[in-house]
Write a structure and sequence with these properties.
By secondary structure, the chain is mainly beta. 4% of the residues lie in helices and 55% in strands. Strands 1-4-5-7-8-9-10-11 form an eight-stranded antiparallel barrel. The model has no long low-confidence stretch (mean pLDDT 92).
Amino acid sequence: MVDGRPVPPPGTWTVDPAHSSFEFVARHLMAKVRGRFATFTGEAEIAEAPGQSTVQIELETASVDTKEPTRDGHLRSADFFDVENYPTVTFRSTAIRPADEGVWKIDGDLTIRGVTRPVTFDLEFLGVGTDPWGNLKSGFSAATKVNREDWDLTWNAPLETGGFLLAKEVRLEVEVALFRK
């Protein structure tokens, strides 16, 4: 039990793409813009001791979608994700540990454009249960903030009124449903 909820049974669990999302939020001009990666894969190896579990995620950079085709094309270009040379963003966990009540921390290595940096997500376990078709499912939410320039995502444009078009800080938000393999 974790926070009064049953822990997923040990074993290999696979990300359910129909019930998962990998999104980012960044300030663009005076608004926050949300984007997502539409194509991804991932697995979690749930251990007997939850802190020994591991997670691997791979996002296809060409699948970036902000609901604005011109901006998406720019994000796919060498100014940002450079999808021709770097077709994926990856995350590999290095540690999972309890934090505050109801929250865990998941440390890992995030690789974007061939640059790997450590990040820590706040992780919330949402529970485990059987869906109406008899499939065992488990859910998690995770979020963190990163400085995009740490991954050489430095393109920007000055604004006539001062400041820049894009903020350096980007919030990463993950909603994941897993199914037992």
